[in-house]
Structures are given as structure tokens and as C-alpha cells.
Amino acid sequence: MPAWIWIFVIITGSLFAIKMAYVLCTAMVLPTTQGALFVSTSRARIRAFIKAVPMKTGEILVDLGCGDGRILRQAHKCYRIKAIGYEVNLMAYLKARVLSLGFKNIEIRRRNFWSANLSEADVVVCYLYPDVMKKLSAKLKANLKPGAVIVACNFMLPGFEPSRVLHPAGTLHSDPVYIYRTG
User: Fold this and answer.
1) Ordered alpha helix ranges (H), the chain
2) Is the whole-model pTM more than 0.90?
3) Right CATH number for 43-181 from 3.40.50.150, 3.30.70.560, 3.30.1330.40, 3.40.50.10540?
């Protein structure tokens, strides 16, 4: 068989194996994520809320379901803050870990954020399904310190009144980013 056929078979097989690993990792965490999939947050959306939510060096940003960790890295680059991400999907977790190598103040935790203590967080970011947001609202009200900022992409956080709603240009359908401040 010609070499190009072997190369094609190897590349196609590798891509298929990666896709199957992604499907398996997603299926394994469905009970925890309640159907939410790893979807990268657009760079336009990240830039918009990082600009709208200035942070001071030493503050702590927590991303609930951090995916590939792009929010953590961008916030750290802009403000030199400590960034903590929670991710249960193994593929997303591994990608976040690899892409965050060399960032000493970024920590990626492969565990469910529901059991996390968020009392030290200055900023909490989430991009979760609406049915999860109600339960999350109760957790954030119980755990966050006064003055903490919550950034919710696409879906409102019940029980909170947004202090600002962004509609970043360049995002699909100009989907909203809600910014809340705890009492």
C-alpha cells in the first residue's frame, strides 16, 4: 500500500479516537453536569467582562466549569490575580492543565464545584444551564462574601439583580453577560 494511504488511515484513526474519547468523557460526567457540555467561551465575551470587572493583584477569581481555562489565563494575564478553575470533564481538565502550564497562580481542580468553599472568591464566573443556576444561586448567596462579583454568561442568576448587562460585539446573537455584586 502507498505511504499516503497509511498516513491518511493513521490521521483519520487518531482523529476518530480523540472524538470518541471526548464523547466518553462527556458521557461520564452527564449526571454531574446535568447535560451541560464543554463549550469554549468566546474571546470577545471574555475581553468584555474582564474589562468591565477590574480586579486587583492578589484577588481570587473562580471559574465554575472552567473548560479549557481560557478565562483563568486571560484574567491572570490582565490583572495578575490568583485564578482557580473547577472542571469535571477529563478532556477539558487535561486541556486546561496543559494550556495553563507556566502560570504559577492558576490552579485547575478536577472536582465538582458544588462541594467547594467559595468564601474567599472575589469574582466567580459561570456559564451553566438555566436549571443549574437556581441551585447555584442559593450556594453563592450562602458562600460568597459581601462585595464579591458574579459573572454569568448567557443565563441570569435567579434571586440576584444584575448591576450590569453586557452585550459584547462579535459574539453569536450578542448573547448577554450578566454582572452581579453581592450585598
Assistant:
1) 3-28, 30-33, 43-52, 70-79, 90-99, 130-143
2) no
3) 3.40.50.150
